[in-house]
Design goal:
Number of domains: 2
CATH superfamily of the largest domain: Anticodon-binding domain of a subclass of class I aminoacyl-tRNA synthetases
Strand content: 5-15%
Number of strands: 2
Order of helices and strands: HHHHHHHHEE
Structural class: mainly alpha
Domain Cysteinyl-tRNA synthetase class Ia DALR: 65-127
Subcellular location: Cytoplasm
Coiled coil: 136-163
Number of helices: 8
EC number: 6.1.1.16
Pfam family, one: CysS_C
Largest sheet: 2 strands, antiparallel
Helix content: 55-70%
CATH topology of the largest domain: Four Helix Bundle (Hemerythrin (Met), subunit A)
CATH class of the largest domain: Mainly Alpha
Length: 189
């Protein structure tokens, strides 16, 4: 629990078929973190564009494929494969600015991940979590301060300084993403 976020451990266990031996290792858990982070990144992208808007409509065909996998000897590995397929289509709909379809995929993905107890944490809190990371030496306040310094440098057209701040943060395990709503950050996977 000190090295990995609790939900990463849950994802790792759920992604393995219950009849298969579970091979715990740091490498496998890091892969689980990367995989789980994909859902969180997708939800973050959606929320930046559309907020928390959900719809009552779910994609019935995808829900049925998920349910079929679960009915097949509780095949959670196959169910998670369906989740990744939904995530891929969801990201495509967000990128294409198809709000209606993105909302259906978002609601479907939210519903199905809830069944498995996944993506239960606040998106920003999970992505900024430093559980299992080396001591980076930077608090959230320090990161926010550096982001503000970078913003000020860009405003003053000091682009070399802004790039230097971005690289310094990246070297310390902090990834910056510039969006229309401003700069957001997360811990590197």
């Amino acid at each position: 629990m000190e090295k990995f976020h609790p939900e990463v451990i849950r994802y790792f266990i759920v992604s393995s078929h219950y009849r298969s031996p579970v091979n715990f290792s740091d490498v496998a858990l890091k892969e689980a973190k990367t995989a789980l982070s994909r859902f969180y990144h997708s939800f973050k992208a959606y929320q930046q564009v559309y907020g928390e808007k959900t719809v009552e409509t779910l994609d019935d065909a995808l829900v049925e494929r998920f349910n079929t996998a679960m009915r097949d000897d509780f095949n959670t590995a196959e169910a998670i494969a369906v989740l990744f397929e939904i995530n891929k289509e969801f990201n495509r709909a967000v990128k294409d600015e198809n709000q209606e379809q993105a909302a259906v995929y978002y609601s479907t993905l939210r519903h199905l991940t809830n069944i498995l107890g996944l993506v239960q944490y606040n998106v920003d809190d999970f992505l900024k979590s430093d559980i299992g990371q080396e001591a980076l030496g930077l608090s959230e306040e320090q990161i926010e301060d550096l982001i503000q310094q970078r913003k000020d440098a860009k405003k003053a057209k000091e682009f070399a300084k802004a790039d230097e701040i971005r690289q310094s943060l990246l070297d310390q395990g902090v990834v910056l993403e510039d969006t229309r709503q401003g700069t957001i950050w997360r811990r590197a996977d």
